[in-house]
Amino acid sequence: MHILEQKVRAAQSNGRLALIPFVTAGFPSEDRYWDVLCELDSSGADIIEIGVPFSDPVADGPVVEQASHDALAAGVTLRGIMQTIFRHKGELKAGLVLMGYMNPFLQYGLERFARDAAEAGVHGCIVPDLPIDESDGMRAALKAHGLALIALVGPNTSKERMQLYADVSEGYVYVVSVMGTTGERGALPPEVPDVLARARSVFSLPIALGFGLKNPRQLDALPRELRPDAAVFGSSLLRHISAGRAPAEFMAAWTGAES
Amino acid sequence: MKKGYFGEFGGCFVPELLMPPLLELDKAMREFLPCTEFQQELDDLLKNYAGRATPITFCPALSKELGFELWLKREDLLHTGAHKINNTLGQALLAKKMGKKALIAETGAGQHGVATAAAAARLGLECTVYMGAEDVERQSANVRRMRLLGAKVHPIENGSRTLKDAINAALRAWISAQATTHYCFGTAAGPWPFPDLVREFQAVIGREARAQMFERTGSLPDYVVAAVGGGSNAIGMFHAFVPDESVNIVGVEAGGTGKPGCLHSAAINIGRPGVLHGEYTMLLQDDDGQILPSSSVSAGLDYPGVGPEHVHLARTGRVRYGIAYDHEALDAFQRLCMAEGILPALESSHAVAYVLRHADEFRPGSRVLVNLSGRGDKDMDIIEKELGL
Ligand SMILES: Cc1ncc(COP(=O)(O)O)c(C=O)c1O
């Protein structure tokens, strides 16, 4: 079992919803960024997704896009991100996932990236502009070093396409809750139960729900058997931190949530 | 060859949420485009609404000066003022067949936005256009035209505030709106199947021009030249000529000011391969893979990438890609106005500029056919400012 799957299963076996905070690298500042990750780690994060900034983040809403532009303006690069993670290797107990668009990985060199990422202690990647049809090269490069390429599916992903992902994926499945970009929303869109049911019927991997989450009460609307195994939150967490509030406080609202 | 690829370039690098509408589009393309009924409806629109066929015009004064024959394919004479309408009528008609109610589009110079707005109005579709805030300022006449044609125009303040950011915004909007909306992409670039789809609709330029050259001169041209932004007018012109081995084909990229350190728009000449807007292509980018802003006096060429088929044609050597700089385009603009009484778009002026500036590369006595992709009315403000008039 891939280590990222183990992380989610471990929470599950304690009856907990696994928690996956997303933070853009270098957010809210170069100085505070690693402390934020440590605080998330010690306040219940099972997996942490680090956002690799990109100039043209087409799957992101305004909050993550702004964080991405700020990070680039502050000089954050993929190389720098890898060096920071490497320097702090072993400090985090959570699983580590890099989430970023294809081009920076490509320019780094897929083979070299996979090797360096594994060495730094990264466990997987999410590449939002890499559908299954284009993903062979990236998946093979990552797999050679034990890293998972996380599947991203959404409300309009058919069973057939989900099956294509299920055949090759490891770690967990990221189910996008909305037909839209990242960014918090008030309530879960009505199509969420359907996509969760479809994903459950196709994947044996644990299911993480993301895009639009801000508090665990949003999940109350879901029938028990459709509740996800993990929740991913990005924009709402970034806004919380931007407002000068503690990451641990945000996590506290979620740590009691059941899977 | 892998689906959606031209050699190693192209592909479909989009969020999974955009795969279903792209697959739907591919299916519709294969279902409707070969249909006689679709072709007849499109031909009728192109002929009786847009003004096809466009003529080819011989330029006597400049030809005399240059020592070879200069011919222009007059896409500037089309309704809404540029080749863009060939593509928008095709896509709008296809969208209707697919049961879509609305079009969204990105635009740089505003020509594609105006052409989409017109096609949408004509075919009874709603229309929303995303346009970089800088372009909204420098092409304000086109913004007003789009609004008069019933389109909503969204200025985009993100990033470099130009075409690249407008495409990001349109892709995002399409994720949410895909059930009812077709994304009418403006150039032969972007994710599969757009490079194929747009080329199909623009290929009428070269088909016509090839037959017209035969009719008027009894032979093929020796050279075919077009400006390359995303690459739609150029691929539309080149496509019919690619199998004609005797025809030399030249694409012209925008070099910006040409000063050291200048941002430019010459992705094939100066870029490196990478992924942007759904395709693997040549891009202006830094070492970290961040996309660099482009720059050109011509808003329609101001883009850090290029359609994948052009990169392939460059790699195989079938097409040569040169560069024309801002000042050369402005000079060509003036010369075409004065010598031939034709007021070209700044984009098209780049193609003319290359021919004027590199006249020694063209065999004396040969025939050179340039695609005049659009008219320059939209550029009056910029041109007067740049030329200090
Ligand atoms: C008149 C004209 N020519 C050329 C272009 C460049 O686009 P493409 O390379 O797709 O033809 C534009 C774009 O707006 C245009 O308006």
Describe the structure using short key phrases.
heterodimer; A: 259 residues; alpha/beta; TIM Barrel; nine-stranded parallel beta sheet; 11 helices; 14% strand; globular; B: 389 residues; Rossmann fold; 2 domains; four-stranded antiparallel beta sheet; 16 helices; 14 strands; binds pyridoxal-5'-phosphate
Question: How would you concisely characterize the structure shown here?
Answer:
The complex is a heterodimer of chains A (259) and B (389). Chain A has 259 residues and is of the alpha/beta class.
Structural notes for this entry:
The complex is a heterodimer of chains A (259) and B (389). Chain A has 259 residues and is an alpha/beta fold. Chain A is 42% helix and 14% strand. Chain A has helices spanning 3-13, 30-42, 62-73, 78-87, 102-108, 110-120, 136-143, 159-168, 192-202, 235-242, 247-255; strands at residues 18-24, 47-51, 95-99, 124-126, 148-149, 151-153, 173-176, 207-210, 230-233. In chain A, strands 5-4-3-2-1-9-8-7-6 form a nine-stranded parallel β-sheet. In chain A, helix 4 (78-87) runs parallel beside helix 6 and helix 6 (110-120) packs parallel to helix 7. The longest helix of chain A has 13 residues, at 30-42. Chain B has 16 helices and 14 strands. Chain B has a six-stranded mixed β-sheet, with helices on both faces. Chain A binds chain B through residues 54-59, 61, 65, 69, 72, 77-79, 101-108, 128-134, 152-158, 161, 176, 179-181, and chain B through 3, 11-17, 19-20, 158-159, 164-165, 168, 171-172, 175-176, 178, 272, 274-278, 283, 285, 287-291. Pyridoxal-5'-phosphate is lined by residues 82, 108-109, 111-112, 187, 227-234, 300-301, 345, 347-348, 373-374 of chain B.
